[in-house]
Specification:
The chain is of the alpha+beta class and 263 residues long. The chain is 44% helix and 17% strand.
Length: 263
C-alpha cells in the first residue's frame, strides 16, 4: 500500500516512474476495495512527503550525518509516524462477531462481514491469536488485525513498513539515509535502524558507538527488555564487543536470562 518506483519501457527505452502498489481492474468485482486502497496509498504518500521535509530540516543541524547516532535517533523519532492507525484502519464490526473468531480457517460469518464492507477474503485465509484482544488474519500477501475495543471490533490492514523505508531511502531522498545504495533491500536497513534506535531510552544513546547500536538493533525486540539491554550495554563498555562477537553475546545473555526467568 505504498507508491514506489517502477521501471517501464517506452519506445524501447527503460525509464523509472512512480506507480501505485494497488491495481484497479475493471470488472474484477474488487473495484471498490481497490479504490479505497489507492486512496490510502495517496494518503501515505502525502505523509511521506511531509516527513521528508521534517528530516531535511534536521539534516541542516547535522551536516555530518554518516554514523551520527544523534541524527539517526532524531530521524527515527519522526519515522514513528508509521505506527499511526489511520493508515491501516478499515472498518468496525459489532462485538457479537467475536464468537465467529477462532484460530484456523476463517468462518463463513466473518468472511461475509468482510464482503459486506467491500473486502474479500480467500478460502486460504487463516486466523491466529495474538493475545486476548487481538487476532491476525493472513490471506496471501495481505495481513489484517482484528482488535477487540470493547464496544466494537476494529479491523486494520497491516502494511510492511519496509515499503515506506524503500520509498524514503531508495526512491526519494537517499542522501538523508546514508546515500544511494545498490538495491532497495540495502537502502531499507537504514531507516529501519533509525526507527528502532528511537525506541531506545535516550539516556543510553551515548553508552555505545553507532556500529555497536547497529549490531544490537539487529535484535529488533531488544528495546522491550530493559534488563537485557542494560546487560548488553555493560558488556559493550567492558569488553569493547562489536560485530559477530557482540551478536553472539546478546544471544547468550538472552538465553541465560530466559532460563533464569523460567525458574
Amino acid at each position: 500500500m505504498v507508491i514506489r518506483k517502477k521501471k517501464i519501457k517506452i519506445n524501447g527505452k527503460e525509464i523509472e516512474v512512480d506507480a501505485f502498489d494497488t491495481s484497479l481492474i475493471p470488472g474484477s468485482g474488487t473495484e471498490e476495495e481497490a479504490i479505497e486502497c489507492l486512496l490510502k496509498e495517496e494518503e501515505i504518500e502525502k505523509e511521506i512527503k511531509s516527513v521528508i521535509e521534517k528530516i531535511k530540516k534536521m539534516s541542516e543541524r547535522h551536516p555530518n550525518k554518516h554514523k551520527n547516532t544523534l541524527y539517526y535517533y532524531e530521524v527515527g523519532q519522526v519515522l514513528q509516524f508509521v505506527n499511526k492507525k489511520q493508515f491501516t484502519y478499515l472498518f468496525s464490526l459489532k462485538p457479537d462477531y467475536k464468537c465467529h473468531i477462532g484460530e484456523g480457517a476463517v468462518t463463513d460469518e466473518l468472511r461475509k462481514a468482510f464482503v459486506d464492507k467491500k473486502r474479500t477474503l480467500s478460502s486460504d485465509a487463516k486466523i491466529s491469536k495474538i493475545d486476548a484482544e487481538k487476532w491476525k488474519v493472513v490471506d496471501g500477501t495481505k495481513t489484517y488485525t482484528i482488535e477487540d475495543a470493547g464496544t466494537q471490533l476494529n479491523i486494520y490492514q497491516q502494511f510492511e513498513r519496509g515499503k515506506i523505508w524503500q520509498r524514503l531511502a531508495y526512491d526519494l531522498e537517499p542522501e538523508l539515509f546514508d546515500g544511494k545504495k545498490k538495491n532497495p533491500n540495502e537502502a531499507k536497513r537504514y531507516p529501519e535502524f533509525m526507527y528502532l534506535l528511537a525506541k531506545i531510552n535516550k539516556k543510553h544513546l551515548n553508552k555505545v558507538s553507532w556500529d555497536q547500536w547497529y549490531e544490537i538493533l539487529k535484535f529488533k525486540e531488544i528495546y522491550k527488555d530493559e534488563n537485557l539491554l542494560v546487560r548488553v550495554l555493560s558488556e559493550c563498555a567492558n569488553n569493547n564487543l562489536s560485530g559477530i562477537p557482540l551478536r553472539n553475546k546478546i544471544k547468550q545473555l538472552r538465553k541465560s536470562m530466559r532460563q533464569q526467568n523460567a525458574k
